[in-house]
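Re: that chain you flagged

S.,

Sorry for the slow reply, it's been a week of failed gels. I finally had a moment to sit down with the sequence you sent. For the record, here it is as I used it:
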Amino acid sequence: MSQGSKFDLLYFPIPGRALTSQLLLSAAGADWKNSVPEWPKDKEAMPYGRLPVLIETEEDGSKFVLSESRAIEEYIAATFGLLPQGIKNLAVSNQYVNQIFDIVEAYANVAGFKYETSLVLGADIDGLTKTPDECKDRDQFYIAQNIVKLSKFLADSSKYFLQKHEQILAKSKSGYYFGDSITYADLTLYSIYFSLKSENLAAEFDSPNYPHVNKLIQLVASNPAVAAVINK
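Prediction finished late last night. Pasting the structure tokens below so you have them in one place:
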């Protein structure tokens, strides 16, 4: 990367799997923008037929194109010094991010099922808006029941993660995972919290049982670069 690189992050008009990359670019003070491809028309033009995609244009006009959310995040974090120092700390950071992604995948299962069902049957069907007991139609009952099942797995995954990471963050003097400033792991945790909160799925995170996790979330939320992305 040259000093004059510009970044174009291609994704749908929602935070989704691009949010952590957006937060990283903003925290780094990079010259970047969001672009929304025409979907599915532009699908075949993408490196692997899916989003997000990062396009970096250097001062000489050369381009570097990268797909897959985790690869994009790790590239941005490494490029702009948003990873902890030392090979052992880097390994631990990767460990934390992998553990956070257990929640990301559980959340994606809930959100994905709701979204795909709404595309086929509509967003206002009983299965998506009512509890299983309130659904009189059998098919709607099974839709609602599956959402309950997926949501419970998400809640259980969140609880297990939070119990472990509360202990980790309790040892931090600054409130961050590493040192006294934001790194990739901090932004990844905040990103999934924000996504869960937007879908009313963050009850376990908001529990008073995890004061040090909540402290980290508040530290990240109060960062002006993060707020610039969240409040846009």
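What I noticed first: The chain has a mean pLDDT of 95.

Talk soon,
D.
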